[in-house]
Automatic annotation (TrEMBL), chains A, B:
Keyword Aminoacyl-tRNA synthetase: no
Pfam families with a match to the protein in the record: FAD-oxidase_C, FAD_binding_4
Protein name: D-lactate dehydrogenase (cytochrome)
UniProt source species: Acidicapsa dinghuensis
Residues annotated as domain FAD-binding PCMH-type: 43-220
The keyword Flavoprotein is annotated on this UniProt entry: yes
Top-rank taxon, per record: Bacteria
Cofactor: FAD
Native organism taxonomy: Bacteria, Pseudomonadati, Acidobacteriota, Terriglobia, Terriglobales
Length: 461, 461
C-alpha cells in the first residue's frame, strides 16, 4: 500500500514517541508487517509506526502525538481478528497493547478483576488459579481481553454466562484527544447515566483505545459434566437445541458441528466420532446431582429427536479431550486443505429460524466448488462457516458469504454474532440498522472528529 | 412554575398537534398537573401540553412539532419515578405513552416479545399467561416497559435474570428531529456496530423517546421454592448473602429487610414475622430436587451465621403471601406515618462492602429525627432507604442521602442502582464518572443539539 503520510511527518512523530517510549516505538519493516493484518483474508495494510506502551498515560501521550501529526491509531491485541480490524488502512500508528499485560487486581469477594488490555485470556486463567473463580469467555484464539472487549467477543459459554457485553463491568479508555476516562463502577448494576461501558464494548477501536478492563468473574462450578450426541440430520440436532433452551435446561455449552466439521476433527484430533451432525454439551452446577439432572433432560430430548447415542463425558480427562477437539476446529479445518486461504463467517439468528438457516446454508455449500464446514454456538443462534479456498475461489466465497448474511438478516438476525464488523462487514451494517447507522456515525464524529481512531472500520463517516 | 413558553407558541403547537391527535392533546390544568410529577419529593413542574399518541409515527410528528416550536418533550409512563424524571422543568410537551399499550408480538419459540412502550409490567404478565414464559423484571410499581427501559430498571430478580440492560434486545426510538430508528435485532447476541440499545436503555428520555421495546423472556421455572430467615444482626444476614453469591448458589431472589422494615410489613400485611434483620429467598429450577438442593445450601449458610430458623415457603399460597408482603413494603412504610413525605434512596456497592455500607447507614439512621427503613436487593449489592418525613425534615434527609451516596461511591459503588439520575442525582454523576460525563454530554449535544429531550435530567449541557 502506498504511503499516505510523508516521511517527514512520520519521522517527526517517531521522534516525539521516542522521547517517552524509547526503543518501544518501531519503524522496522518486519514489525510493521506483523501489525498489518489479523487472521482474515483481507489484504494487509502497514502502519507507519508501531508502539508498545506500558501504561494508560503512555497511550494518552501516543494519542496526543497522533493528534498533533494527523496520524491514525489502530489498536493491536493478539492479532487474531477475523474481520480486518487491525489493518492500518491509512497508515499511522499501530498500538500494540501486549506489553500492557498486568493483572491489576483480583477480588475473590466481589468476583471481579481489573486487567490491562493486553492480558490474554489464558494469562487471566492462570492468574485465577486457586481463587475458585474463572472467566468463561473464550473466543477460541488466545485473544487479549482488550481486543475481546473491543469486538464484543463471546464463544462457547455465552449461552450460560453471556458475552463481553454482559461480563465487562467497566473500562479505562483513551479518547482521540488523549483524555483517559473510566466507565462503569464496580457495582453489579447501576442506573447512573449513559452506559458508556456498553458503547465502547464492540466499538472496535473506532471511538477510543481500551487500556484497562474490569471483568465479572464466575465461581468455578462445583460439578461439571459433558456429553456428545450425533444425529441423522441437522434439523434433528438443532431441534434438540431449541427445545433444551426453551425448556430452560441449564446448559453451559451447547455446540453444533456439521458432519464435515466432525470429519475434520476426527482427522486432526483422532477423536473417532461418528461423522454426522453432532452436538456437544456441557453442564455446570452446584452438585453432581444437579448437573446429572440437566444432562439427563438433554439426553431425553436428544432421544426424542433420534439422537444416535448420548455419550456422557464425566471425567475431567474425557471432557478436556472433547473440548480440546472442539477448541481446535479452526486448525482441524485448515488441515483439511493445507495452505488454503480460510474465510470464516459469523451470523446469528433468532433460535426459531436456526435450523432453517443452517440447513439452507449447508445445501448451498454442498454445491460450492470449495470445501466448507459449519460449527456453531447454537444455543445463542450463532454459527460459523469456514471455507477453504484457493485464490481463484475468493470471489465465489465472498458471494456465498454475502448471501448467508442476507439470509440471516432476513430472518431477523445479525451479520455478526461475535467477530465484529471490522473492514469485512461494513456494507451489511446499513441494511441491519438503517437510520441507526446515522446515529452511530454522529457518535463517531463527535468522539473522533478527525477520524483518526481505527479509520475505515465499522462505518465510514 | 412560571410559564416559559408564550401563550401563542403553545397555542400554535396545540393546533398543529390537534390536526393529527384530535382530542388526544390536552391543555387542561388537571391533566397538566397529573403530568407534573412522579412519586418523588421534588417540586412538580407542569408541561404546557399533554399528548396521548397511538403510534411511533404520531410520536415522530409530535417531535417535529416540538422542533418547530422549540418546545421540550418529556416522556411520561406510569408516573412512578422516584427521581423527578417526569417533571416538565421547562414546560413543553409531556408525551403520555400509556395509550401505546399493545403487545405487538410474542414468540414462544424465541422467548421474546415486542411491546409498545406504554404496556405495563402487569399487562405483559397477563399477555404471557399460558405461554409458559414470563418476564421477571419487577421494579415494584406497575411501571411501563418503556419507562423501565428508560431508567434501566431492575428489581428483586436481577440477581438471577439481570436488569433491563440485559433483557432489552432492541428498541424503537424517536429522535429529537422526529426520525425513528430501530436498535438491535432479534438475535440473542451481535457484534454488529455500536450498542445503541444499551445507549438508550437508561438514558431517561434525554436522547430520544422509546416507543417500542423488544424484550427477552424466560421460561417459567418448572419448580420454585422460597424461604425466610431472621438474623440477630445485619452483618449476619448480609454475610449469608455474600457467601451464597460467592458459592454460586442459584438464588432467583435474595432480599434483605432491616428490623424496622419487618415491623412495618407486620403492621401492614399482618405477617407476624420476627422483628429482626431478615432475608427472603426464592429459588427457581428445572425440578423440585434442584430447588430444594439450592435452598438447603442457603439454609446451611444461614445456620452458620446464626439464622433464627430458616422457614421454607413451599406452596404457591405461602410464596405469594411472602412476596406480596415484600412487594408492598413501599405502602407498608408509608403507613407507618400516614401523610408524610417519603424520600426513597437507592445505592449499589460491590458486595464485599455491602455489610459495612448497610451497617454504617443504619447507625446513622438510628440517630436521625425521622423514621427510616432499609430494604435491599442485596444479591446485587443494591439497597434502598425510605425516610418518612415532615416538611421540616426534608433538609436533614437530603443531607443523609448525600452522605449515603458519598459512602457508596467511596466503596466503588454507584449513586443509583436502579432508580436513575433524573433530577435528584445529577450532582453525583460528575463524581462517579469524572471526565466520562463530558463524553455523555457530547453524545447528548450530538443527538439533541437544541436540548429539547427531557431537558435538565441526567446532566446539564
Amino acid at each position: 500500500m502506498a504511503a499516505i503520510h510523508s516521511i517527514s511527518t512520520v519521522e517527526a512523530a517517531r521522534r516525539k514517541l521516542h522521547e517517552f517510549l524509547g526503543e518501544r516505538v518501531s519503524i522496522a519493516q518486519s514489525v510493521r508487517e506483523h501489525h498489518s493484518h489479523g487472521e482474515d483474508t483481507h489484504p494487509p495494510a502497514l502502519p507507519d509506526l508501531v508502539c508498545f506502551p506500558h501504561s494508560t498515560e503512555e497511550v494518552s501521550r501516543i494519542a496526543r502525538v497522533s493528534a498533533e501529526h494527523g496520524l491514525p491509531i489502530v489498536p493491536f491485541g493478539a492479532g487474531t481478528s477475523l474481520e480486518g480490524h487491525v489493518q492500518a488502512l491509512r497508515g499511522g500508528i499501530s498500538i500494540d497493547m501486549r506489553e500492557m499485560n498486568r493483572v491489576l487486581r483480583i477480588s475473590a469477594d466481589d468476583m471481579d478483576a481489573t486487567v490491562e488490555a493486553g492480558v490474554t485470556r489464558k494469562q487471566l486463567q492462570k492468574a485465577l488459579e486457586n481463587t475458585g473463580l474463572t472467566f468463561f469467555i473464550d473466543p477460541g484464539a488466545d485473544a487479549t481481553l482488550g481486543g475481546m472487549a473491543a469486538t464484543r467477543a463471546s464463544g462457547t459459554t455465552a449461552v450460560k454466562y453471556g458475552t463481553m457485553r454482559e461480563n465487562v463491568l467497566g473500562l479505562t479508555v483513551v479518547l482521540a484527544d488523549g483524555r483517559a476516562i473510566q466507565t462503569g463502577t464496580r457495582a453489579r448494576k447501576s442506573s447512573a447515566g449513559y452506559d458508556l461501558t456498553r458503547l465502547f464494548v464492540g466499538s472496535e477501536g473506532t471511538l477510543g483505545i481500551i487500556t484497562e478492563v474490569t471483568l465479572r468473574l464466575h465461581a468455578q462450578p462445583e460439578a461439571v459434566t459433558a456429553a456428545i450426541c450425533a444425529f441423522e440430520s441437522i434439523e434433528d440436532a438443532v431441534k434438540t437445541v431449541i427445545e433444551a433452551i426453551q425448556l430452560g435446561v441449564s446448559v453451559a455449552r451447547i455446540e453444533f458441528m456439521d458432519e464435515h466439521q466432525v470429519d475434520a476433527v476426527n482427522r486432526y484430533s483422532h477423536t473417532g466420532l461418528k461423522v454426522k451432525p453432532t452436538l456437544l454439551f456441557e453442564f455446570h452446577g452446584v452438585s453432581q446431582r444437579a448437573v446429572e439432572e440437566a444432562a439427563t433432560m438433554a439426553q431425553e430430548l436428544a432421544a426424542e429427536h433420534g439422537g444416535l447415542g448420548f455419550e456422557w463425558r464425566t471425567t475431567l480427562a474425557e471432557r478436556e479431550e472433547l473440548w480440546k477437539a472442539r477448541h481446535d476446529v479452526y486448525y482441524a479445518t485448515r488441515a483439511l486443505r493445507p495452505g488454503s486461504r480460510v474465510l470464516t463467517t459469523d451470523v446469528c439468528v433468532p433460535i426459531s429460524r436456526l435450523a432453517e438457516c443452517i440447513v439452507e446454508t449447508r445445501v448451498e455449500l454442498d454445491q460450492a466448488s470449495f470445501p466448507a464446514v459449519m460449527v456453531g454456538h447454537v444455543g445463542d443462534g450463532n454459527f460459523h462457516v469456514q471455507c477453504l479456498l484457493d485464490e481463484s475461489q475468493l470471489g465465489e466465497a465472498a458471494e456465498f458469504s454475502e448471501r448467508l448474511v442476507e439470509r440471516a438478516q432476513a430472518m431477523g438476525g445479525t451479520c455478526s454474532g461475535e467477530h465484529g464488523i471490522g473492514l469485512g462487514k461494513k456494507k451489511y451494517l446499513e441494511h441491519e440498522h438503517g437510520a441507526g447507522v446515522d446515529v452511530m456515525r454522529a457518535i463517531k464524529r463527535t468522539l473522533d472528529p478527525e477520524n483518526r481512531m481505527n479509520p475505515g472500520k465499522v462505518l465510514d463517516i
